[in-house]
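Weekly sync notes, structure subgroup
Attendees: PM, AL, DS (notes)

Item 1: joint prediction request from the bench team. They want all four components modeled as one assembly rather than separately. Inputs as received:
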Amino acid sequence: MPSSLSAEQQAEIEAARAQQAPTRRPTVAALEEILFQALPVLDHGFVRVVDYFGDDAAIVQAARVSYGKGTKKISDDRNLIRYLMRHRHSTPFEMCEIKLHVKLPIFVARQWIRHRTANVNEYSARYSILDREFYVPAPDQLAAQSTTNRQGRGDLLEGSAAERALNAIEKLSADAYAVYSDLLNEGEGADPSRPGLARELARMVLPTNWYTQWYWKIDLNNLFHFLSLRADSHAQYEIRVYADAIRDVVKRWCPIAHEAFEDYRMTGTAVSGPGLAVIKRLLAGENVTQEQSGLSKREWAELMETLGR
Amino acid sequence: MPSSLSAEQQAEIEAARAQQAPTRRPTVAALEEILFQALPVLDHGFVRVVDYFGDDAAIVQAARVSYGKGTKKISDDRNLIRYLMRHRHSTPFEMCEIKLHVKLPIFVARQWIRHRTANVNEYSARYSILDREFYVPAPDQLAAQSTTNRQGRGDLLEGSAAERALNAIEKLSADAYAVYSDLLNEGEGADPSRPGLARELARMVLPTNWYTQWYWKIDLNNLFHFLSLRADSHAQYEIRVYADAIRDVVKRWCPIAHEAFEDYRMTGTAVSGPGLAVIKRLLAGENVTQEQSGLSKREWAELMETLGR
Amino acid sequence: MPSSLSAEQQAEIEAARAQQAPTRRPTVAALEEILFQALPVLDHGFVRVVDYFGDDAAIVQAARVSYGKGTKKISDDRNLIRYLMRHRHSTPFEMCEIKLHVKLPIFVARQWIRHRTANVNEYSARYSILDREFYVPAPDQLAAQSTTNRQGRGDLLEGSAAERALNAIEKLSADAYAVYSDLLNEGEGADPSRPGLARELARMVLPTNWYTQWYWKIDLNNLFHFLSLRADSHAQYEIRVYADAIRDVVKRWCPIAHEAFEDYRMTGTAVSGPGLAVIKRLLAGENVTQEQSGLSKREWAELMETLGR
Amino acid sequence: MPSSLSAEQQAEIEAARAQQAPTRRPTVAALEEILFQALPVLDHGFVRVVDYFGDDAAIVQAARVSYGKGTKKISDDRNLIRYLMRHRHSTPFEMCEIKLHVKLPIFVARQWIRHRTANVNEYSARYSILDREFYVPAPDQLAAQSTTNRQGRGDLLEGSAAERALNAIEKLSADAYAVYSDLLNEGEGADPSRPGLARELARMVLPTNWYTQWYWKIDLNNLFHFLSLRADSHAQYEIRVYADAIRDVVKRWCPIAHEAFEDYRMTGTAVSGPGLAVIKRLLAGENVTQEQSGLSKREWAELMETLGR
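Output from the run, pasted for the record:
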């Protein structure tokens, strides 16, 4: 359990977990197992499954627009689901829905929210006071700017350089919270002789490594799209770890759809028309070079990397 | 039960209803009661609740971004939900989701699908053969064109005029299905000496009173928007009856949110700035006429109707 | 020009084309050339470009969030746009928008509308009377049901079978319009002794090969998604011809983005992780069979077809 | 012109403004006048219109699905547009589209992005280095927490309290940028003896009063929805000033639709069914009290405020 949960919050979660009721809806035992639990991510963040509906069978049922459970055999379900995934027949996957409670740094939240096909309720810092919780990268994530990729990381910082960076992030964060508290001038230790600043203004001094939290609800098709972009190796590490935690959730929830997603979206690749022509020539035993390929240098390099050559 | 369900379909539904499993998710007993059942609409249509998640408490929980159940007292929940509805804080209502199986005439489906914030899987007439099921208005719905509203109905047709219209609709529908079947030339009674036409082509002769069906999934906020437009008195009767059936479903599912919706959206009204100025003058005892009001004749007439004057 | 335009409509279009005004907005000469013109599709349908904004440079400008025109050299623009397309950085393509006026059969409209990320205004048959215009397939499109693909076409119908089908479609369509007119009982030839049926009801007897029309507005990214699905060989012919007409429009509008789209989406392919492993083994000279591949028979067959083996 | 534009940016804007080309598309002279210009908002922010299509006539044209310009008389257009607005026939308003370049503090951007029905390209702080530009409230905006509204402002801070707050915000912001620059360790004054931190990490120390910028594209209907929420008196001042700037833009662009929007959405009000019943009783001369009204105290108070009683 992440230390970020207070005893009271932990008790609320346990109380919710202790309750059960009978339902006619499809249930997924493997997902019920972890329902409401905070799955830790980063230093203070988490992902909690708050609700869900649908399962692998619901995807089949929707594809068939059937009255009952869809096909009878698991192997038929698997073939159909893989076929749907392969041919981007995406609507049946939209028939499964999940609701998560996520705690995450603001700069991660700002990338995350770019996915518009989801429902969001965020904790309001206009209304409430934020806790003193901010993200500090672990030493194995403290990397220099990449020299080859303008939006990526390169070598790890080491020794005094790492220490200097960590200290600077921590000190600035601590200072920011002190200013925030001083501006608010609320609660214990408040100075009754002066008015505090409105919450909606005071919050502006907190850096984007501050933790926020939200309820986030999305269907499985759009979740797969989110994961394919945010679990990708080009995504920033700090959002990728959330995407990875959610992939594990999906594996529990819809294992067949999850497997198809991993095969077709995560470990698969898209090949362009000219790239496909190159592959065919290579398979025919031709010795193709970049110059003969019709591909730009960059496209050629990416294709060769994909093919492991 | 509508006659449109075959014995086999009815059995599938009963089998699904007979199964129960424990869940940690919130459940709504009043909705579980009717889960999977076909609620009849029009002559062969229905609405079936296939899945749901969330309840009134989930709206509160999302508005508070809380770990447990939100507020403790029902009266607090009610006040908060009404406040959210009144001030169009719509995102917490998006945290409830429902999936329906709907059977409906194509011309109704074409109005329905204009609501884009929903997920849909429709029965495919490219892939499958449609049944011989078409909508014929009941006698009390067979109305003449309205003389005052270009998109509305006026007086009922009576006697021979009504009979003539009903017969014409029924005969054309029957003829169309005969042509469809003849074009397909499949199954029992098929003529082996000639090829049938592809299903994706043959279907084009069926009129838009033909029944189709789909799985339709939507969140409560967008459902309210759908209902406010389609349960409105300006909506065509044939879609309004579906909207009314769904309002009953929502009443079972989220009774507090349903009540707020009825009060603020269905029985309430929007008043323009100039209209509000008129109301204030009237309340002050002034005798306002259309000419003095700044409203056009039509706006004035609509306002007076709203005020029951 | 399609015969479906009346002289009056044609005159309105010519009048609109005759007007020009200076603008500071980016303009695309090749698209202005065909602006407002009806590009014929099927027997009575068309696509007309009614408005547009953005061009290839606007994609670059948005990707750079720049104050002026983005990069200076065309070759840089091309590399950037291809990079964006390759890596599914789709948001800059959303900065171009187009508005079309489309006339199309109802059964095509029903497939088309499934793309939700567009704006639509459809001609209302509740409000207005539909013309006598319906789609009849050309002889080279009158095909039997495919025996291998449940949602596809097989061999062409020939001789008397074709004639029989065409006649049946035409006769049913003519009958339907006669019933529709009789039910309406409006205008010339109306029988004053009996009331007509409301338009919103009478329309229900018209088959789905009836032509409707709408204004349809979409951004370039979502248009590409639409085209990738509807210009695909698995799409029904009757919608594919619209998609093809729009591809030509996009080629005039954003030629660089169009080329990237054709290379990466239309002629390219998606390969699964297991499929990629097979390609690598084949490239390494290994003789892989389906049994050794880890792919199902169907996945294997599709991969071999893609690779032209 | 806001001081936030560099001379180079200003020159790019002027160069873009200097270019004109003829177009067949509808143009709006009043909007062309300010095209590309930065309209200043807050201390360093702005709104710039980068592109647009459609005008009041396009709304009418879409509502009519017409070939030419829609109705002929301005007064007819006005009546139709007001009718559409009054009855929430929103789709014709979606046929106008606008693209803005906006510079705004991150905490404002986070509220803004909650409107999902828009397209966005934001300046990337993973890729680029942010300028030293942060928001500091003007003295007349430095307010205490409201004592009656948990998410609002109360009395202005004065004298030393105001000074203390301003100084604290400015100092923390300056400190944060110093840490950011030190972490990056790039460019002039960089220390070659140590590696800098990756941009995507270093940025996390910047507070949410930092300015970011984006291209933002939206249709007129969804823009009205955005404005009705963000120009509302309950919205935070710092986003309201952007909404107000955009209202002026819309007034230039689609003056008739703008007027209807102001009358029906901005100065108008929604009345609940029980509230409407109260108004009717008051108009009938009855002396209604809260207790007799069926309204809660809060609902009653809000209604009386609306009615100016």
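Discussion: The mean pLDDT of chain C is 93.
Action: AL to compare against the crosslinking data before next sync.
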